[in-house]
Design brief:
- This protein is mainly beta and about 180 residues long.
- It has 1 helix and 11 strands, in the order αβββββββββββ.
- It has a 5-stranded antiparallel beta sheet with strand order 1-3-4-5-8, with no helix packed on it. It has a 4-stranded antiparallel beta sheet with strand order 2-11-10-9, with no helix packed on it. The chain has a two-stranded antiparallel sheet with strand order 6-7.
- The chain is rod-shaped, with a radius of gyration of 29 Å.
């Protein structure tokens, strides 16, 4: 009965995990004045999600897998407009907890000896622990899908801001060689 309850507890732990969620990681500081030159990356957003377990829930160890990236690059100023290039990449890894976890097989050897010393029988047992056998994880090869590039022109006489992936980029000043901006 106790074994059944322990198995039920383990099953409840596995199925009771949080749902798989995607997180967004911004490489640049937020609400801080930043400077970029022509060709520099103004914004880099990396996206990832929890590794799903066998029940479709989030990995209990918090492991994650990439789902893509968006970058914005400063191209300079022309005709009173600041120009940027937005590039997005989507990634499907197919990774789960089942195919991303190595299998560790413990190794031990047990030796049993029996015999007679004169008229007296004897027996003995010895267990030797050996290094474990590790079978590496074999997740599928990630598939990257290029969503292409998009040019963004920001009129420096009017709006001075634009939004990418929910983040607003406000331009404080821009010229042919330098951009001063803030991300909110």
């Amino acid at each position: 009965m106790k074994r059944i309850l322990n198995s039920f507890g383990a099953l409840a732990l596995l199925t009771g995990c949080a749902s798989v969620q995607e997180t967004v990681n911004l490489s640049q500081a937020v609400n801080t004045r930043l400077t970029a030159g022509v060709g520099d990356t103004v914004l880099r957003i990396a996206k990832e999600k929890n590794l799903p377990n066998a029940f479709g829930r989030a990995d209990i160890f918090g492991r994650k897998t990439s789902t893509g990236m968006t970058t914005v690059q400063y191209l300079g100023v022309q005709d009173g407009k600041a120009w940027f290039k937005r590039h997005s990449l989507f990634v499907e890894t197919g990774a789960t907890t089942m195919n991303s976890t190595p299998l560790i097989v413990p190794n031990s050897a047990t030796t049993r000896t029996t015999g007679m010393i004169g008229a007296m029988p004897y027996s003995g047992t010895s267990t030797t622990s050996l290094p474990p056998t590790i079978i590496p994880a074999h997740p599928p090869q990630p598939q990257a899908m290029d969503d292409g590039s998009l040019l963004i022109a920001v009129d420096l006489g009017q709006q001075k801001q634009f939004t990418v992936e929910g983040r607003t980029i406000t331009i404080e000043s821009a010229d042919a060689s330098r951009l001063v901006y803030m991300i909110q």
